[in-house]
Amino acid sequence: MNLMQSLKENDSICLGLRAQNWAEAIKLSVKPLIDSGAVTEAYYHAILELTEKYGPYYILMPGMAMPHARPEAGVNRTAFSLISLTEPVTFSDGKEVSVLLTLAAISSEIHTSVAIPQIVALFELENSIERLVAAKHKEEIFKMLEESKSNPFLQELNLDRKI
């Protein structure tokens, strides 16, 4: 699944949001996927339960998290959402996050071979977190995603295939 295609199809970019805590931030990041039918509300609860049990395992870099749970926890189809927060939320390990890119994958293979490379490419862009937090319009996000396609890591992937 192509990250940009998924964000457009699911109308799942929400910028400049406010959250009181990490759990509310997760809820805000999963809501567009629930609204689009990509996941059920059980997916949100699964992420919360896993976070309580294992800590915020999905914080990939300073300022950025990729909340996700197992496919059987309510995933109907592979999809992504991206939200930015005006103020970061602090997780139990003390790390602060301002950008959440939620992943719902129908299989673990999609998670590692399709989703992660695209996310890495986006966040390898110079000042990616700052640019995402500063973005006021979805078009700015799409422009960054287009820019990230030149990452050599993505050249071998056929991201336009349907999964």
UniProtKB/TrEMBL annotation:
Q: What keywords sit in the KW lines?
A: Cytoplasm, Kinase, Phosphoprotein, Phosphotransferase system, Sugar transport, Transferase, Transport
* Subcellular localization, as worded in the UniProt entry: Cytoplasm
* Cited Pfam families: PTS_EIIA_2
Looking at the record, the residues that make up the PTS EIIA type-2 domain are 6-148
Q: Which InterPro entries match?
A: Ascorbate-PTS_EIIA_comp, PTrfase/Anion_transptr, PTS_EIIA_type-2_dom
Q: What is its main location?
A: cytoplasm
Function description: The phosphoenolpyruvate-dependent sugar phosphotransferase system (sugar PTS), a major carbohydrate active transport system, catalyzes the phosphorylation of incoming sugar substrates concomitantly with their translocation across the cell membrane. The enzyme II UlaABC PTS system is involved in ascorbate transport.
Q: Identify this protein by name.
A: Ascorbate-specific PTS system EIIA component
